[in-house]
Amino acid sequence: MSENRIRRVAEQIKKDISAIIASEIKDPRVAGLTSITDVELSKDLRYASIYVSIFGSEAEKEETLQTLIRASGFIRGEIGRRIRLRYTPEINFYMDNSLEYGAHIERVIRSLKEETGGEDERSEQDN
Predict the structure, then answer these.
(1) What CATH number matches the domain at 3-96, 2.60.40.3090, 3.30.300.20, 3.40.50.2300, 3.40.50.1000?
(2) Mind giving me the DSSP string for 2-66?
């Protein structure tokens, strides 16, 4: 199967799951700021790994992830109704901490700049 088609189907699944989480899952255990960061599909489109970024405390993150895992059958059914594929992929949810990691790296860089007094900026201005 072509990589282009896999990428297009993954993007459509990402959009649809985001819409399902936002409007159709009414469970209060799902945190308000839950976003799908990535979808990886197997080459035969039978398995989908969904990476989720959740804003909140560690307890809220874990509870939201577990709720999404329990709702994966419902979400899979909705995907099957929205996207016409021979096989609706089995869905597995995973926590994506890349946004938090990026924010952590940004804080470390800022603190290093403050400690050095912004020497990097001054040396760039001299050039």
Answers:
(1) 3.30.300.20
(2) -HHHHHHHHHHHHHHHHHHHHHT---TTS-SSEEEEEEEE-TTS-EEEEEEEE-S-HHHHHHHHH
Is beta strand 47-54 parallel, antiparallel or unpaired with respect to 90-95? parallel
- Report field, pTM of the whole predicted structure over 0.70: yes
Q: Where are the domains of the chain?
A: 3-96, 98-127
- Comparison of pLDDT for 98 and 64, the residue scoring more: 64
| DSSP string across 62-124 | HHHHHHHHHTHHHHHHHHHHHS--SSPPEEEEEE--HHHHHHHHHHHHHHHHHHHTSHHHHHH
Q: How confident is the model at residue 120 (pLDDT cuts 50, 70, 90)?
A: low
pLDDT, one tens digit per residue, over 19-66 is 998 888 888 888 778 889 999 999 999 999 999 998 888 888 899 999
Number of residues in the chain: 127
CA-CA distance, 66 to 28, in Å (whole number)? 13
